[in-house]
Amino acid sequence: LFKESNGTNDSCAATCQVDRLQSEPESIRKWRDEQKERLEQLDANSRKQEAEWKEKAVKELEEWYARQDEKLQKTKASNRVADEAFYKQPFADVIGYVAAEEAFVNDAEDIFPGTEWERVAQLCDFNPKSSKQAKDVSRMRSVLISLKQAPLVR
Fold first, then answer.
1. What is the DSSP letter of 2?
2. Residue that wins the pLDDT comparison between 86 and 48
3. Whole-model pTM?
4. Signal sequence: where (predicted)?
5. Higher-confidence residue: 42 or 88?
6. What is the DSSP string of 111-142?
7. How far apart are CA 133 and CA 116, in angstroms?
8. CA dihedral 52, 56, 59, 65 (to 10 degrees)
9. C-alpha to C-alpha distance for 150 and 148, rounded to whole angstroms
10. How does pLDDT run across 96-130, given as a tens digit for each residue?
11. Quick one: 95 exposed, middle or buried, by C-beta within 10 A (0-12, 13-18, 19+)?
């Protein structure tokens, strides 16, 4: 029944604690009890508040996922409509790029050594004023033009 702990048994430690509590003034004992109750109450309130926050977070997360799914579905639908409209317009400006790419693929059968840069140049828009890009691509354009005019020799 009696277990040894640091050279003294538990009954002696319990007796010492009881003696210490009995030798404490009543005001300190009362304060300690009030403090213990107050801390228990604070712990209970914090657990309750934490549970409420978790519930609220789960609800907000579900709502967020629903909104994201709705946005995704709308985007998919608008992309489908845009794709259909894109392929129904045979001579739109954007289609020109697709037509150039298709011509590039169709001309892939006519591959001759030294014509690689000419085929790349077919896909590039070398007119700087008609370029719709916001970035400065003049250096890349000049490199491609120079490679088209004087291809690398292996």
1. P
2. 48
3. 0.37
4. none
5. 42
6. --TT-HHHHHHHHS---TTT---SS--HHHHH
7. 24
8. -140
9. 6
10. 556 656 666 666 666 666 677 776 776 666 666 65
11. middle
Write out pLDDT tens, residues 45-78.
999 999 999 999 999 999 999 999 999 999 999 8
Alpha carbon of 82 to those of 17, 41, 102, 132, 146: distances in Å?
Answer: 81, 61, 20, 19, 37
Determine the residue type at 119.
R
Task: Count CB-CB contacts under 10 A for residue 9.
Answer: 14
Residues in the chain: 154
Distance (Å, rounded) from C-alpha 63 to C-alpha 135?
39
Biggest alpha carbon distance in the chain?
105
- How far apart are the C-alpha atoms of 87 and 84, rounded to whole Å? 5
Return mean pLDDT, the chain: 76
DSSP letter for 110, please: G
Q: Whole-angstrom Cα distance, residue 31 to residue 51?
A: 30
Residues 104/119, Cβ–Cβ less than 8 Å:
yes
